[in-house]
Amino acid sequence: MHRLHNYPDVQVMFRRLLIATLIGILAALAVALFRHAMVVLETLFLGNDSGSLVNAAQSLRPAEMTEEENAELLRLLNKLRDALK
Question: What is the pTM of this model?
Fold first, then answer.
């Protein structure tokens, strides 16, 4: 009499389950490490530990541009406008 399903060896199934579990745990640790690294970098560079990059960015002052930088930006914008015509 033939079986309807040909199940693999039980040891192979448990080995695959163990590998899948370890991969899941390592992925969760990678996500947690990335999240903590982002909080550390936000605190280090922005001095804000609110957990929101939007709030941190809103607390920053706009950068002051020199006249030369303004002129260069205006020249590039005009060049872009002419190229799009």
Answer: 0.54
